[in-house]
Amino acid sequence: MLEMLTLLRLSCEGEYEHEYTSVYTFHSASANLTIELTDDYAVRHDTLNDLNKAIMYWLLIVIAQAPLEMQSIFQRYLDAVSSNDALRSIGQVEMGKSVALELAKTLPPTSTVSHFPSWGNCKADLANDLARSFSSRMLYNGEATHLSSLPEVEFKSSLAEIKKNLHEINDQINSGLKKMTIEDLSSVLYKAGSHVLADSRPDLDLLFHIVSIPIKVFNVKPEVEIKLMTEVINMWAWTLRRRKGLFSSACDLINPLNQSIQFTPTDREEMKPRHNTVKRMLKPHHILLDFVLSRFQAARYQNRTLVLITSRLLKNTLSNVKHWSTHPLSRELRIRLIIFGFSLCQGSRMEDNVECNLREVCYLAGLDWFKLTPSFNFGSNRLQHESELRLLQDLLAMVIVDKPVNAHHLSSLDPGTKLNRLPGQTSATVASLCHSDRNHLFQLLLENEIIRLMAWQNPLSDVKRGKNVESIISKATGEGQSC
């Protein structure tokens, strides 16, 4: 049932991703299920909605009768990896797993917690228990897979060592002595559970200790955050030196006049491999940027070191814009990096020379795209178009309100002498005029880029295909003025 929802949802996405070349057959390898649908998307939508209502109604009845069993089934389904999962892009929506995740944390009607009101518009659920049990299941499965491949002698030796550790822990608990850390205790219990899964004949002594010894939960380790972020940023710099991902020229834009001309219809199957190659090339930097953004927003007000290393990452990346890929699909990643740079300039207190240098490379990186031959990701993938439009709108709103702060200057000179200079030995007045001209030029180019993209996305200003050009630009301008 859940795989059926995934396939139907995938068929509905074709309205945006394959607008001109409909796909009629969909297959699930994990469920050995194949469905064939009409090209009428309205029928697909109605079928998906009706089936989703029926499945949710039936599953909620079953959860009320067997909550623990259903939670186990949902977790196995979420943990399952089919043969074609490796071919799916990261971030793809699977409705079946979304429904399973939602139901796996649903409280059964018999739970007393289910009678709590929805304080803060947040309904009580079992999200905490689900996260804990699912992480444990992942570790158990990994240990069990390794143990299953061991020779019998090594397996018995490992089993004996685990039993010895469990007996020692049990004796410590009974005597009131606690010499083991929570991390060591959790590790031993995880390994014991893996032995139970890997052994064809369950060991009753092992099961007794697993049940009798309380399971502890792992804690996060904030002390490794800076070290981890430093390693991530070092590897980002490594991709720059080795010309990987965003910094690779393998998929740079080729002048159409240097390519052969073919008067044949567009073949989506022929274009798909090239499209996937570029997406795979850029995806690692998208993932790394998501991670850096997330950690930066979470710790920017409590960790100055994190802000410092992030600003160095951005300055180094934006300064090497000449090495960025010029493929049309790289524009989304380009805009995200520039938005990140502007948000750092506008939302962090920095020394004015550092702020001036970072803001300058943000503008240079943004203007670099417009020196290239105009190129767009033309095609039937409306999701890509809308994503780029939203990013361009966000960037335009940030550029409209952008202005230098220059409120924190470190110098041994007396501020009253007016001898303090910004990079390039320019005064604050000259720097302000240069910024005004550059800001106005960047605004015009962004507005023109939005108009060009909307000419393909929604040439007739159809309400069903999104907002028109005027509303998008006026909204960005209005947001900028209100800020």
Automatic annotation (TrEMBL):
User: In this protein, which residues make up the domain named PI4-kinase N-terminal?
Assistant: 220-461
What family is this protein classified in?
Belongs to the PI3/PI4-kinase family. Type III PI4K subfamily.
The name under which this protein is listed is PI4-kinase N-terminal domain-containing protein
Q: Which organism is it from?
A: Melampsora larici-populina (strain 98AG31 / pathotype 3-4-7)
